Amino acid sequence: MTSPLPEEILKMQGSYCGLHDEEWGFVKRVGRRGCMVVALCWTLWLSMLGSLTPGKGEEIPVVAYIGNAEPQILGIQVLDESAKPTNSIDPGSGFFLDILVRDNNTLADVARIRAILYSPSSSPGGANSEQDHYTFRWDSSGFANEGGVGSITVPQCSVPSDRTVAQGTWRFALKLSKNARQSAGWTILVRVEDEANLTQSSRALEVTSFVSLTIDASQITFSGSPGQVVAANQNPILVNYASNHIVNLACSCTQFIGVLDSHFVIDPSSFSVDDDPVHSQAQETGQAEVTLSTQRLDILVGLPIGTGSRNLYVFVSIPEPFLDQDYRGTMNFELSS
User: Fold this and answer.
1) Bond preceding residue 236 cis, omega within 30 of 0
2) Residue 291: which residues within 8 A CB-CB, separation 6 or more?
């Protein structure tokens, strides 16, 4: 059988084995067995070279593992309803929250974004409530109001149009309750997660004051004789209020001037307001009855945050003697801090 090795290689192999006594000290020590091993190695190596077909290679699978890069929050911006930057929001009014994110594994690696808004009376892990704590989320299923208070307008929310790039903005369209506590110390905490990491960042937010007051009586009327203390015909007068901070209900009063003869007037001090139906109690069952003035005076103190209603009872002490005619004036009710 003819050897596939080139003649010059065979000569080299033979010379290598034959020179072990003169030039190859290692081979000399191991003897003929060592020469046979070396010759066998040459033969295998050259046989492998001879088995490759010119112009063709061998395909070898290669696996390249790309490590996970932690996402970054590059910016948190608050915009008002006109999409103008702002540092404060009005409770009950819509606003936008823009979150700029970077992920060097591309934005497709971002799994979840959570926005937590909380007042100084709460904390990041606090319970969700209209007054102090709100939680909103984006993930693969879309945008959601995770905390169940406030609201999120999903059609106005958006995600980056191209998530194969490294950087983009998520927009949340939100609204806090009218009961959200008035404070300049609110915090917006944003958490961004990918498959392996969570990163977070925060910024300050102010929630401005909100108050609302309605009275169910379009007018207050009295009828009586001189020397009498008379209750308003509309008693009890229902007052409905809403506020995002503790407030007082105050009232002021003008003179009531005679329609036919303006020389006769009823002074504000003839009127009083109470939160129970009994005039001039020796011991009050509620807050103290208040005699009115042209100056604003508190008649209900410490109304709590939120919405509520109270009954008011208005009285007038008709002077004696006094001209029988109609008298007209104004009472002004308002909420004050």
Assistant:
1) yes
2) 269, 271, 272
- Grouping H, G, I as helix, E, B as strand and the rest as coil, residue 196 is coil
Rounded distance, CA 122 to CA 120, Å?
5
Quick check: helix, strand or coil at residue 188?
A: strand
Record the pTM: 0.72
Q: If we measure between CA atoms, which residue out of 318, 331, 320, 326 comes closest to residue 261?
A: 326
Q: What gap in Å lies between CA 74 and CA 257, rounded to an integer? A: 66
Residues in CB range of 127: below 8 A, 6 or more apart: 133
Q: For 288-293, what is the mean pLDDT?
A: 94
Its CATH class, for the domain covering 72-207, is mainly beta
User: Using CA atoms, how far apart are residues 107 and 168, in angstroms rounded to an integer?
Assistant: 7
Q: Tokens at residue 40, please? A: 């066998």
- Nearest alpha carbon to residue 254 among 266, 272, 237: 266
Domain boundaries, the chain: 7-41, 72-207, 211-336
* Res 11: pLDDT: 44
CB burial of 300-325 (b: ≥16 within 10 Å; e: otherwise) equals: beebebeeeebebbbbbbbeeeeeee
Residue 240 amino acid letter: N
Tokens of 337: 């801090």
Q: pLDDT tens digit string along 67-110?
A: 889 999 999 999 999 999 999 999 999 999 999 999 999 999 99
Q: What is the pLDDT of residues 175-196, one digit of tens each?
A: 999 999 999 999 999 999 998 8
Question: Does pLDDT of 169 surpass 90?
Answer: yes
Residue 84, C-beta contacts closer than 8 angstroms, at least 6 positions apart: none
User: Which CATH architecture describes the domain 211-336?
Assistant: Sandwich (2.60)
Tens-digit pLDDT profile for residues 241-273: 999 999 999 999 999 999 999 999 999 999 999
Q: What is the pLDDT of residues 14-28, one digit of tens each?
A: 444 444 444 443 343
DSSP bridge partners of 248: 336
Query: Which residues are within 8 A (CB) of 282 and not within 5 positions of it... i.e. 6 or more apart?
Result: none
